[in-house]
Design goal:
alpha+beta; 6 helices; globular
């Protein structure tokens, strides 16, 4: 009887292990990330294709989509990098809030330009930290061939965007460079003051040069 029980337990263990290996084999992070990104792209295109909507209203709708599909807390930490620890807990929270509005506006402003074009997914690749970059391209119109890559990370069971590389410009890397200079000269308080002022004034700075994604 004891031998039979041990045999059953052993068989159950083997079956569970086999099932786990099969699930791992079936898991495809690149495909999962692409599927999640396709949903976001379809939502953005739906906004862009509505006739008679002015650019400001269109940009605001795209910003709201970004706030749902981007992990701005992770992006804030990536942007500040080592400087993140220089902020108090309250300053970190304020930075995330202000930077969310700032980066969503920056993304919305750039994407809103692509009013009559189509966006197609052209590939995906695995990155460090188990991230996936989903590569898309604009087809047709004035921006034909423009590349937009989305770096995605699996967070709390959902694939979220943690960086956007638009026409070779990494938003995270570009802002990291800008913000590091401000922090070096005036500390966290100066950076918060400047972002706060830009958000209140509705100012979006365009990155001046291409910066390779980090």
């Amino acid at each position: 009887m004891l031998r039979n029980r041990n045999n059953v337990r052993f068989a159950t263990l083997i079956a569970a292990l086999a099932l786990g290996l099969a699930s791992s084999a079936l898991a495809d992070p690149k495909a999962d990330a692409k599927a999640a990104m396709k949903t976001t792209i379809d939502d953005v295109l739906a906004v862009l294709r509505v006739p008679g909507v002015d650019e400001t209203a269109r940009r605001k709708q795209i910003e709201e989509i970004a706030k749902q599909r981007f992990d701005f807390t992770t992006m804030s930490k990536l942007v500040l990098k080592r400087d993140w620890k220089r902020f108090t807990a309250a300053e970190q929270q304020e930075f995330v809030t202000e930077f969310t509005d700032y980066l969503a506006a920056s993304y919305g402003t750039r994407i809103a330009r692509y009013a009559n074009e189509q966006v197609v997914t052209v590939g995906s690749r695995l990155e460090t930290n188990s991230d996936v970059s989903v590569q898309t391209q604009i087809k047709g119109g004035n921006f034909d061939g423009a590349a937009i890559d989305y770096r995605m990370r699996l967070l709390a069971g959902k694939w979220q965007v943690i960086d956007v590389v638009i026409e070779g410009i990494s938003l995270v890397s570009n802002f990291r460079s800008q913000f590091a200079d401000v922090i070096a000269k005036g500390g966290p308080q100066e950076l918060l003051k400047r972002i706060r002022a830009k958000n209140r004034a509705g100012i979006v700075d365009a990155p001046p040069t291409a910066v390779r994604a980090q």
